[in-house]
Amino acid sequence: MYHQSDGKKVIEVQFDFEEIAIPKHLKTDKLEKTSVLQTLILFPKQDGRYVPYFLNIYPDSPDKKFKLKDFMEGGYQKIPTDFSGVYRFYRWNGDFISGWRVKDGVKTHRIKDLKTQEKKGAGTSARTSNFQLYCYVVETTWFQYTCFEGIGCTTPEEIGTTTNGMECELVMAPPTPGDTGGGGGGGGDPTPTDEECEVPEGNLEGVTVDCDEDEEINLAKLSTCHKLIVNQLIGSTQEGFKRIFEKFSGSLLPPYNFNVKFEYGDCPNSAAGCTQPFLVNNEAKITLNKSILSRASDLSIGRTILHEILHAYFLFLEDFPSANQDLNSLLNYYISKYNVSGNINYNPIHHNLFVENMFLNDIAVELRYFAESLGYPSSVLDNNDFFMDMAWAGLTDTDVYNSLSSAKKVRINSVYYSELTGSHKGVVSIGTKACE
């Protein structure tokens, strides 16, 4: 256990993997289980649980073999001065976050996956102060490497897909890209600079958004606790919302990717969250009411984020219909049906679309995945009515809600407000209070 420079406590454990993906350059007759180092990184939460990440460390040389001292002296907290290769960070569900290319112990490039089939060509660049950021696409063929305790390791099998990614390098002069086949080289020496070019993503210090681009999901104004919840929620998504969050997590301009910024403020009718009903510079703005959320459970905050990101998504679809033409046509139908001429109100437009076209169910399903990622027991995860009741929150202005029985309306409101406030009308919150 140790502390990052920002003071956050970190626990790092060497992880004895059974299966791991390896890049093609390590698939040689020298490959052993010690050819790759994987660690489990844990950030303790105030409630006794942890925010987990995986770190996979791939050396450039197939001759490199990791020993216990490499973990004790290296790992996430300290890159050995004699190490050259790649650090890749993953969420608990296996989603790649970001990474570094390292040359002689120094980070020379940042690595991120492309979220779309649109590729930036080699040599893409952007000006940052007195420096130039050069980015180029790399392609790496991955193999599945499986090892069994007491039996040994199997021959690596090609996964069958090629991961496309972007590597970016901050330099004074045009770089010469190294071997882009997945291993070896980094291209160019690190350029010393006093300018901070990276900002933390979640808890992982130095796993960052490129300095030349806006954060597509901009959490800079949120508290550390709320950042963790949003990142955990994004990492847990499995169904329709996974594609929506990916749309907000890419680096290309609309309509290929969308941008959203979170901040604190007041919302109409004392709502926990609200979305500005128009885009500014191709960016949506989601406001969270911090005082109202101060007593909310993690599940309540997660529900608020899912609800508001849907609003932001539909705002982009209206301005950029080519991103999803079928859904845009459906959106236009609801706009014409519920719009008040000269005074457009997106809440009833979007909300009726939510409840009449499976998005209500999507919110409930993704909220359950979120609860599972947080470690809630099966007694909670199997309570489908609870997640559906939570999904109804904020949708009480819809025609479908108005057709529900009075008893069901009372139950929905009691469940929602108990998660938002800790208890309501005798109903005790199922979720854990998120942020002290």
Q: How would you portray this structure in words?
A:
The structure is a single chain. The chain is built from 12 helices and 20 strands. The chain has helices at 68-73, 224-236, 240-249, 290-293, 298-319, 325-338, 346-356, 359-373, 378-381, 384-391, 399-402, 406-421, and strands spanning 2-3, 9-14, 19-23, 37-44, 50-59, 85-91, 96-103, 106-113, 124-128, 131-148, 152-153, 157-171, 200-201, 204-208, 217-218, 259-264, 273-275, 283-288, 423-424, 427-428. Strands 1, 2, 3, 4, 5, 6, 7, 8, 9, 10, 11 and 12 form a 12-stranded antiparallel β-sheet that branches. Strands 15-16-18-17 form a 4-stranded mixed β-sheet, with helices on one face. A two-stranded antiparallel sheet has the order 13-14. A hairpin with a 7-residue loop joins strand 17 (273-275) and strand 18 (283-288). It is globular and about 70 Å long.
Number of strands: 20
Helix content: 25-40%
- 3D shape: globular
Rg from C-alpha positions? 23 Å
Throw out a few tags for this protein.
436 residues
List the helices and strands and how they pair.
Elements: E1 2-3, E2 9-14, E3 19-23, E4 37-44, E5 50-59, H1 68-73, E6 85-91, E7 96-103, E8 106-113, E9 124-128, E10 131-148, E11 152-153, E12 157-171, E13 200-201, E14 204-208, E15 217-218, H2 224-236, H3 240-249, E16 259-264, E17 273-275, E18 283-288, H4 290-293, H5 298-319, H6 325-338, H7 346-356, H8 359-373, H9 378-381, H10 384-391, H11 399-402, H12 406-421, E19 423-424, E20 427-428
Parallel strand pairs: 15-16, 16-18
Antiparallel strand pairs: 1-2, 2-4, 3-10, 4-5, 5-6, 6-7, 7-8, 8-12, 9-10, 10-11, 10-12, 13-14, 17-18, 19-20
